[in-house]
Structures are given as C-alpha cells and as structure tokens.
Known about the structure:
The complex is a heterotrimer. The N and C termini of chain A lie far apart (83 Å). Chain A is globular, with a radius of gyration of 25 Å. In chain A, helix 4 (149-158) packs across helix 9. Chain A has a 5-stranded antiparallel β-sheet. In chain A, strands 7-8-9-12-13 form a 5-stranded mixed β-sheet, with helices on one face. Helix content of chain A is 27%, strand content 20%. Chain A has helices at 27-32, 70-83, 103-114, 149-158, 160-163, 205-211, 214-220, 253-257, 304-320, 327-334, 336-342, 375-378; strands spanning 36-43, 46-51, 56-62, 67-69, 87-90, 96-100, 133-134, 174-177, 191-196, 226-233, 236-243, 270-275, 290-297. Chain B is built from 2 helices and 2 strands. A two-stranded antiparallel ribbon of chain B has the order 1-2. Chain B is globular and about 40 Å long. Chain C is of the alpha+beta class. Chain C has helices at 7-10, 20-28, 33-47, 99-112, 133-145, 177-187, 189-193, 215-218, 235-242, 263-268, 295-299, 345-361, 368-375, 377-383, 417-423, and strands at residues 52-55, 67-72, 85-89, 96-98, 113-118, 126-131, 162-163, 203-206, 221-227, 232-233, 276-279, 282-285, 304-305, 310-316, 330-336. A 5-stranded antiparallel β-sheet of chain C has the order 1-2-3-6-5, sandwiched between helices. In chain C, a hairpin with a 7-residue loop joins strand 5 and strand 6 (126-131). Chain C is globular, with a radius of gyration of 27 Å.
Amino acid sequence: MGYDPKNPMEGRITDLGPHPYTDMMPPVIMANKGKWDYHEIVAPGVLLHVGDSGDTCYTVRIGSPRLISIEHVREMCDIADAHCEGFMRFTTRNNAEFMADSKEKCDALIEDLKSRGTKFPIGGTGACVTNIVHTQGWVHCHTPATDASGPVKCVMDDLFEYFGSMSLPAQVRIALACCLNMCGAVHASDIAILGIHRKPPMIDHKRITGVCELPLAVASCPLGAVKPAKTEVDGKEIKTVKVNAERCMFCGNCYTMCPAMPLADPEGDGIAILVGGKVSNRISAPKFSKLIIPFLPNTPPRWPEVTEVIRRILEVYAKDARKYERIGEWAERISWEKFFEKCDIPFTDKSIDDYRLAYDTWHTTAQFKYTNATDAYTK
Amino acid sequence: MAMSLEEVEAAIIAKANKSPKPQLYIKDFYKCDSERKPREIKNIANKLVTKGELMFWSSGSTTMYARPDRIKNEEGDSGVN
Amino acid sequence: MPKHDTPMLDELEKGPWPSFVSDLKRQAETHDECWDILGQMEMSYRDKITHWKHGGIVGVFGYGGGIVGRYSDMPKEFPGVEHFHTVRVAQPSGMYYSTKNLRDLMDLWGKYGSGMTNFHGSTGDLIFLGCRTEALEPLFWDLTHDLKQDLGGSGSNLRTPSCCLGESRCEWSCYDTQDICYALTMHYQDEVHRPAFPYKFKFKFSGCANDCVAAIARSDFAVIGTWKDDIQMDQAAVKEYMAGNYPSNAGAHADGDWGAFDIQKEVIDLCPTECMWMEGDELKIDNSECTRCMHCINVMPRALRPGKEKGATICIGAKAPILDGAQFATLVIPFAKVSKDNNYENIIDYIELIWDWWMEVGKNRERVGETIQRIGLPTFLSVMEVDPIPQHVREPRSNPYIFWKEEEVPGGWERDVDEFRRKHAA
Lengths: 379, 81, 426
C-alpha cells in the first residue's frame, strides 16, 4: 500500500522526527562515546581518536561540493561498506568523514579514496582552509545576487593546496551567502563571500494585481521603502506599489512576498567580501566579519576577481600572522589600516558604517598608524 | 464567559474571511480570543489547516495563514497539495 | 546525450576540487531533469541572473514547514525543472548515517525527485533538491511509512535543531549534545512541523566553547558546553608537550614552520585572562580567573581537559544581519545542568519562558534577539526569572537614561503640585 490521493488522510503518519542517532553510529563510536581520552591529527585530513579503553578510531575527512547526486552518495556508501562497517558521517562544514577502527583499515580506506580521481579530496583539518559553507545560488534560489556552487568551486580549486595541508597560522573558515539574507550565515567567517544586489526592485504593474497582496508587499520591506500607489494599465487605473529607491537596502524581501517586484540584474548584482569574523570563543570573543570590498562583478564561469583577492588576503595573512592568530585577531593586532595597506585593498566610503549603530565602528581615539592611506597628509 | 473552542474557530475563520489582507500572521488571530494564550490560538489555527478551513503560505522564512479561496498564486501553484 | 550545450559550466569541470557539474552530468544518465538543471544554470551563467521563482503554498498536508516551493521561470525550455521544490529531511543528531539508511534515502529520492541533494542544508537538514508538487505526498508517505523518518522545519517554525558530534567522538564535549538535540526535537515535533512563532526559532547545541555548530552566531537558543570546577591537568603530559614528544594543538600546525613548541609563548602568553604560569616544571592555573575559552586545552589535549563538573552556558538571540544587523547570542544563563536524568526539564523551562513571552510581544518577522534589543535586556532577564549579574554585560552602560519604575522610587510618582507651589513661587 502507498499514498492514495483519494484518501490523503488515510493511514497518514506524522511527527516521527529524525532517525534515532543511536542506530547511525559505527561500533567503535558507540563503544567509546563519552569515554575518549585524546585525539591527534596524524596527517592532513586524518584524525586519530584514542579511547580510555585503548580503542582507536581513525577518521578520514574528505571535501564535498555539498550539491551532490544520489550516485555520489551511493559511491560514498560503497566506500563506507568496504572499510567502515557501513557507517559514515558529515560535518557542519559539508565535509564527509569515514571512520575506521584500525590503522590498516584506515590505510586501505585512504588508498581507495585516492583511487577515485578528484571526487574525494582528503583534508580539511587543523590550520587549513576547510570546505566552504554556502547557499544555493543560481542552482535553486529565487533571490540570489550570485551563484554559490560555482564561486565555491573556483575558490576551492584555487586554494586547493591549503585544503590538504596545515601550514596556516590558524584555521581559515570561508563562507558564501548568495544574498544578504545570508541563509549561509556568513557574518562570523574569516572570509565571507556575499552576493549583493544594487538595483531596487522593478514593478510589474501589469501582473501585480494578479499575483500580489499589496499590503503584504508593503509590509515586507524592512525599511518601509515600499508604499501603496496607483497607476494606469491599459487605460484603467489600478492599485499598485512604488519603491522609494533611496531607502532600499536591496534585500529582496519584497520579491519573496510579491513576484511582480524582481530586483536581480546582471550589472547590478555581484559580490562583496567581508573578513575577520569567527565563531569560536577561543582566546578572543566571537567576532563579526567586516566589509572590506563592497563590490566585485559577477564574472562566471570562474570569478577570477574573487579568487584573486581571496588568495591575496590569505597569502599576506599566512606570512604575517602569528601562530594561532585568526584573520580577525591578526587584523586587530596590526590595525585595520595596516590590513588594507598590506593586502593592497583600496579603502572606500562603503566600508564606513552608515546604518544603525554605525558609531560603534568609528575611530574615536587619536591613536592610529600611518599607512599609504595617510600619505596625502604626510607627504 | 469564556469562548468555546467552536466559537474561537468561527472567530478565526471570520477574521480570515473579512480581513482586507487575505494572508495573515498568527499574531493577527490572537485577538479572536484574548483570554487564550498565543500557543492555544496557534494550536487552534493549525488544527483548522488540517480541517481544510485555512491553508499555509510560506516565504521559506515566515509562514502565514489564509482561507484557501482567498490565496493568490503564481500560476505554477495549483492551489492544492 | 547532452540535452543542452553548457560551455560555461564545462569550465567548472576543471581543477582539483570535486566538480558538481561532472556530478550533475553523471546523474543525468538516469535522471533526465539534471540536463535541465544544467541547461537552466548555463543560462544563468550567460545572463548573470537567476531563473527561479518562489512558490508559497506547496507543502505536505497539515505541515507548515519542511518544503520550500520553487519553480523555473523558463519551464518551456527546461520542463524537467518546471517544479523544483526543496524537501528538508531531518538529519540524525551528529549527522551520522548508516549506509543502509543513506541508500534507502537515495532510492526514495531517485524514485520521486531530481536525484540531486545537499549534504546538508544551512540549518542542518538533509536536502532533497527538486521535487514536483504531485510527488510530494507520495514521497512523504514512503519517507514516514518505509523509512520511519520525517521532514525538518522551515518558515515560522522551530527549525530542525542541530548539534556538534559531542561526546560521540570528542573528549571535550561537556554534555551529550546528540541526546538533548534528539530529545528536544522529539519533544517539540509539533513546533518543528507547524508554525508557532512570530518568526523562525533555532536551537543549536555545542559541546564546548570551540562551538563547532556555530550556536553563538546562528541560533536563538545556544547551548554551549562548559564546566564549573578546575581544568583537569596531567603534569606528566605537560612535560611531554614541552619536550616535543606530543604534537602541539593535536598536530593542527604540522605543516607550518613554527619551530619548537614554546609553552610560554603558545599557551601562557595567549591565555586571555593571564591565569597560567610555570612553577619550576609544573604548569599552574588560577582556575578562578579562567573564562574557559578552550585555547590551552586545544593546544595540549593530552595534558589538559575540561573539568569534571560539566554543564552548559545558555546564550540567547543570535541571528544573521537582516534587519538591525547581525547579533551574537547574549549570555543569559551562566551555567545549567544538561542531563537526561531530568529529561532536560530545566532546559525546557527556559525555552518555554522565552516562547511564552516572545509569542506575546514579538512583532511579525522579528527574531527573539531583536525583540530583546527592542524591549531591553533587563526586561528579558526578568522574563527569564534570573537576577541581573555583571556577567550579563561586557561593561556597564555609559549613559544614565535609566527607565526607573514607579515602585522603585520612594513615595511613587504621584505628587501634589499645589503643595510644591507653597514652597516654590512660580
């Protein structure tokens, strides 16, 4: 028996919740849960956990594009069946992990992974660039200002050497959100790639009556920039909305409520870069990412402007920062003015906050550093 | 006199019929019986969805309620699920 | 045979990182709609603009979440993606899977959908990407009947709670993140599936202050493991680190040219509270000054461990920037026991205090962190039935604009102006 559209409520089951996690863990994890003694990263992408019992668990971490096919998942299942007693897991950063309970099994697992071309790169541990947390972009979203999977692929291709090694001062977490609603919550990442729109919504007066509830479109605007209005369509007066373009923050919320207000645009849309955020409480408190580049154009298929600037920041950081220092901690130590100079990034008024609570970020001290930006005053 | 469950249901349906905006937030129904806690109103409104009296509309991040015959759609949505 | 030419996307088959384009092409062999995904995406690459439309009313009957409606705006060119709804499937705690379950899920999705997935979505759910409206109910039927699994949350629901892997494979976890995540997800199934709030609400559970699940940045209710006694120390292991016999930071810096491990420079000098020092060859910690940031423990995992009296700090109100700017979660409960012995009743009590208040006073589409900002942290603390303590602020306020309450001022606010005038000429 299956679903019967004539009797949709017949035999319906609801509110089952997720599969119990206790059925999903490999034996070595089940046996040692809560009783782990210590861990070590024995090679890039390979973790060793040792239990109080002396049991060992070798974990091999691999990168994944997150957007993956059922065939790809089935191939991972084949690997887990061959080496890991039929279990695997995923990380919060879209990596996948295979766990084996002995060094021999781990070696065979690694050999197997390496034999499968570029599908399963090993890495993502320690002081590395691990996988990029990202959103849907042009593959699925209705409000994106850029693609997600494509720029992620380009950045990871470019920084690939840092995924499979641990040579950086600390871990570098990169995230991408394809519009400023930030489903990817990039606001606390070492490097954030953020899609932004720069043109206010258009209004399709011919369609708005048919597809929109005007009060909802008006209420959807966070800044009250959408107002009721009247216009003429085919000689008839209709109710519609107007947009106060000066108040628009280009979030696209109106478009979600009202499909007659599209705002995406090939020239208007692009990418902003933010840096210096972190989530962990380690040493310093969590930090927000700061906007350092207000706009880079969308240049599919390889987004060279984006990959170039990210590599530049990463390399300056790698050379200049102290061991354990995250990008934000480094920038604060050397000062943000030095950050812009060292990374050779032009400072613009767009990096000066003029939104709410802006004053918090202004420089209210006579202490500063002379950099190339002050040359106009000193030279 | 406290309102009966049926009375609250009727008040919610009346509100969804009469409101100038066809799609309503849950908060718009709180006043249908101000003696009941928001959670009770929410439970009653959600029950009305399973009875076919209301339906959900979701932006993905927010969810609203509407009478099935008052909801406006993109042509892709058939209006039934 | 390719249905559409994709010269731009083909460029994304180059390079060492796994290619989603190659993967889509592989899947297209059995799922023709993958050609239309590629075709429509190629069009987006050419036009630099999306070709998706939102759909608001698709879902499975009676659930207000779990499905997000999506349609192509070029359905004639790309009929395979005319309907392309997202299905959120609640993930197991810690994102462990048996291959049996994964294969069942993939078979199910191969039968009803496009064959493309996300492992995982931003909230934590497993995502099936691209389902036709008429396939949603049969998919849900098989998911619940055959796989005994369920959808996750979206919209104004409790979003699918998520956690770090916790005690399952981490010696630092201060409570069983997986268990509370599962227990509360089950306890609140109604709130996960049916809208309940002014806006979304998220729980996230991290086992320690490293916060691998980004609870403090991304959840309305962040439970972050901590302890209240002393860091456990093994002086013999400290010596092994100092002698270079154990890799510092568990080997995380192995490929850098950082020289020999220097406990003074790498641990003691980096401690944010300066509460560590060496006495002879013994490491000392003034635990009363420690803020439990995890740095020293991260650097010397075989020598240092969280204390034995473990629990969690609860921080409330994080969110991404829309609308008033990003917020991290604010510390409200410094320490709470997190134990299945009481079925997490103390945690549930905190959650319901927040919900009862927020459902009443929160505006439509206002995250609880914004409600707290709008109404004030002092009011929120009284809602939570906790006394204000210095730990609730980074520093005391610098303006004197206190909203005194009448009952706090002797004699109240009612005064007789005639009485006043008798002593003060106008």
